[in-house]
Amino acid sequence: MKLKYLTVATALIFSAGVTAQSAPLTIPQATKFDELATTPAEVTMPESYVKAIAQQAYIWGWPMVNQFNRRETITKAPYPALNGGMVPVAPMGQLSMLTDYIKPQETFVTCPNQDVAYGLGFFELDKEPAVIQVPDFGERFWVYAIYDARTNQIGNVGKPYGTKPGFYLLVGPNWKGETPKGFAGVIHSSTEMANVIPRIQMDDTPEDRAAIQAPIKEVMTYPLSEFTGKMKSYEYSTIPAIGDKPDPNSGETRWVVPEKFFDQFANVLNKVPPLPGEEAMYTQYRHLVEAGKKDPQIRKWMDEAAVQTDKTVIADFFKWKNNGVPAGNGWNRSKNNAQFGVDYYNRTGTSKSNMFDNKPDETQYFYTDNAGNGSQLSGDHDYTVTFPQGGLPPVKGFWSLTLYNSKHLFSPNELNRYSLGTKNQNLKYNADGSLTLYVSKTNPGEAKVNNWLPAPDGVFSLYIRAYWGEKAILDGTWQPPKIEMTK
C-alpha cells in the first residue's frame, strides 16, 4: 500500500514548534497540517512503521476510548438505576446516586471508595448544556468531579472551593449563549463529552447514613431546557436494579477491546479537539486509521500492535510502582491526577489502574503493592501500618486506608470492611497517641478488631486517600508509614 503521510521526525518538529536548532518555526497562518502531511512523495508504509505508530496511538488514545465506551454503555439506561444492583447508571444528561457505600462486588471501576456515597452521569454537550444542581451539604465534605473526554477534571465544584448551594451550568466548547438567570456559575468543558462523579463523605454509622439522605435527593443533573429555577429532587433510595450482576472473578469491566480499538479511535479524533502542539500527531493518527480502512493488511498490523501493547504496556500500568512518583517508605503517590494535559504516561496509567481520580488539590492518593521490606503484600502474611502521634495524613477533609485485591477491587470479608480512617469512630489509639492498623487474613483478636483491615487470599495492595490535603500532603513532604510484616 502506498500512502502520503507525515514522518515521525516532521511530526515531532511541528508538535514542538521548533527546528532542530531551536529556531522559531514559521508556518503560514492559512497552512493546514493535513496539507503539510500530503506534500511528501508517496512512500510505502512498512509493518514496522505501522506498528510503531499504532502502539503510540493505543497508549495515547486508551483513556479516551475508555471514556466514550463507558458513556455509550451507561447512558443506555432508560432511567436512573443501579446496574447489577450496584453501580449508578442514567440516561444521557442525568445522573444516578448511591445512598450508601458502593457494594464490594462491583466491577465497573477499579479502586472504588467506601468513604463516600457516589453518583455518576454522562453528558453530550454539543446537544444541550446541562444543569448541575448543588444542595446544602452543611459541614460535610463533598466534591463533584467533572471530567472531559481526556479524563481531565474541568470544574472547581466542591467544599475545597467554597462552592455555594444552587445551580451551575455545564457547557461544551462551542457554547456561545449568555448565562441564564438563576445560575451561580458556568463550567466549561473542552470537549462535548463530559461526565460527573459526585462524592459525598459519609461516616460509617447508622446516624450519618440517615443524615446524608436528604441532601442526596437533591444531587441532580438535567438538560437546560428542563430548568425551572427551583431545586428538584429524586428518590434514589428506591431506584431499580437493571442488568446482570457482575462476575467478581472477572476483574474490571473490559472497557477497551484491542481488536475494536481503531474503529472507536476514529471517533476520538473527531470528537476531541487537539491541544496546542498535537495537530501533527492527529494528522499522523488519522492517516493511519484511513490506511487501515483501505488496506486489510495494514489494519491487521494495527490490531496486532494493539493486542500486544495491551498485554505489555497497558498491563504494566496496573502495577503501582509504574503509577505516579515515589512517596517514601515503599509507596508511590499520584501525580497530575485529573489534570493530565500532555502527561500521557500518567493519564493512561491512571485510566488503567484507578480511573476517575480527583484533582491534586482535592485528593492525593498513595499506593503500594509491597511491604516495607520490598516483598509483595500477601494474605499469607500479617502486617501493621502505624501512624505515629501527629502523623496521620494532614487533611481538611478526611483520610482512609483501603485494601484492594489483585484486580484493584474488593474481596468480600466477614466484617464487610474494606477501609479504615476518618469515617470510623471506634478506632483504638495506642498509649503514646499513635495509631496501628492491622492488615491480615485472620482476626488479630478482640482488642484489635476495630483496627483490623481483613486481607484476602493471594496478593493485594494498600491505598491511602487524603481528601483536601494540607500543605504537607500537597508538596509531598508527608510520607506514608512503613508497612511492617509481623508474620
UniProtKB/TrEMBL annotation:
Alphabetical keyword list: Signal
Every DUF1254 domain range: 93-223
Entry keyword annotation includes Phosphoprotein: no
Signal peptide: 1-20
SUPFAM superfamilies with a match to the protein in the record: VPA0735-like
InterPro entries the record matches: DUF1214 (IPR010621), DUF1214_C_sf (IPR037049), DUF1254 (IPR010679), DUF1254_sf (IPR037050)
Stretches assigned to coiled coil: none
Span of domain DUF1214: 362-470
Taxonomy, superkingdom: Bacteria
Record's protein name: DUF1254 domain-containing protein
